[in-house]
Amino acid sequence: MVELVVGSRASQLARAQVKEFLAPLRARFPDVAFRHRVILEDGDLDRKSDLREVSERGGGAAFAGRQAAALLDREVDVVVHSLKDLPTADPDGLLLLPAPPRADVRDALCGAALADLPTGARVGTSAARRIAQLLYARPDLAPERIRGNVPTRLTRLRTLDAVVLAAAGLHRLGRAGEVAEYLPLDRFPPSPGQGALGIQVRADDAGARELLAGTGDPVTDAEVRAERAMLAELHGGCSVPIGAHATTADGILTLHGQLTTPRGTRQIEARLSGTSAEPEKLGRAVAALLLDQDAETLLRAPQFQPR
Ligand SMILES: NCc1[nH]cc(CCC(=O)O)c1CC(=O)O
C-alpha cells in the first residue's frame, strides 16, 4: 500500500488546512494511506513569544524551518503551509506545487466595522501591513500588537475594540460568524498569497509529485505567483507593509500592488494587467511601477512599534 505522510504545524488552522487539502485526495485515491504528522516549530514551542517576534520580522524561518527539515529528512512527504507565511525563495531541495484553489483573500475586522469604531479605538493586529493600512484609513486608531493563533487572537476582543484577521483562517475554523466587516480589497489588499495553501514537497520526489499533480488550481496559482513575484522584487519580508491582490478574468491577470509607510502617512499603488501565462513578469512589472514612485524610501521608513 502506498503511504503519503503529510506534515503541518500543530495549530487548529494548520489541521484544518491539512483536512481541506486531503479531502479530495482521499476520495480520489482510496488505496493510498494519507497520514498526518504534526511538526512543532521553534515559534510554536516558545510560549513567551520572543522568538515568534524575531521570526515574524525575519521572514518565517522559525515557523517553516522544522517543516523543511522534516521533509528533507524524509519524515514527511509533503507539508501543508499557509502560503503567505512562506519566504518567496524555496529552501534547497524543496519546491512548492501549484497552489490549490484559494479561500477568501480578504482581511476581516472582528468586533466592529471600521466606520463604527470610535475615535482612538484599540485594534489588535501584529502585521505591519494591517497596522499601516488601518492608520492610513483612520489615523486616530490605536493599533495593539496581538499574538498567538486565531482563536487566541479572537479572545482579545474582550479587551480590544476590534481585531483584524484573515477571512480565510476564520472561515476554515468555522468562525465566520465573528466577522463584523470584510475590509474592501481596493483599500486593503491582503498579504501576497493570503488565503492560499503552500504545498511543499522534495524536488526529487517524483512519486509525491505525480500523486499530487491534480491538486493545483491554475487560476489561484497564477494569481499567487504574480503576488509573490512582486513581493520578491521589492525584497519584502512579512514585516513590510506590502499588499498585493491579483484577480483573473477571461485569462487576463490583473495585479494591484500597494505599499504604505508603517505609520500610514503615505501610500503608493500600482495596477497592471497581463497574460496569466506569465504571472512573474506581471509581478515584477507592478513592482517596477511602485519603485518608480519611490518605493525605496517607503521601504526604508522606520518600523512602527505598536503597544
Ligand atoms: N500569519 C498568521 C496566519 N497565517 C495564515 C493565516 C490565515 C490564513 C491565510 O491568510 O492564508 C494567519 C492568520 C491571520 O493572518 O489572520
From TrEMBL:
One GO-annotated biological process of the protein: heme biosynthetic process
GO cellular component annotations of the record: cytoplasm
Keyword hit for Transferase: yes
Signal peptide: none
Catalytic activity annotation: 4 porphobilinogen + H2O = hydroxymethylbilane + 4 NH4(+)
All residue ranges annotated as the Porphobilinogen deaminase N-terminal domain in the record: 4-208
Cofactor: dipyrromethane
PROSITE patterns: PORPHOBILINOGEN_DEAM (PS00533)
Entry-linked Pfam families: Porphobil_deam, Porphobil_deamC
Domain (Porphobilinogen deaminase C-terminal) ranges: 223-291
Domain of life: Bacteria
Keywords: Porphyrin biosynthesis, Transferase
EC numbers: 2.5.1.61
GO molecular function, one term: hydroxymethylbilane synthase activity
PANTHER family registered for this protein in UniProt: PORPHOBILINOGEN DEAMINASE (PTHR11557)
Classification via NCBIfam families: hemC
Similarity section: Belongs to the HMBS family.
Role played: Tetrapolymerization of the monopyrrole PBG into the hydroxymethylbilane pre-uroporphyrinogen in several discrete steps.
Protein name stated in the entry: Hydroxymethylbilane synthase
Organism: Kitasatospora cineracea
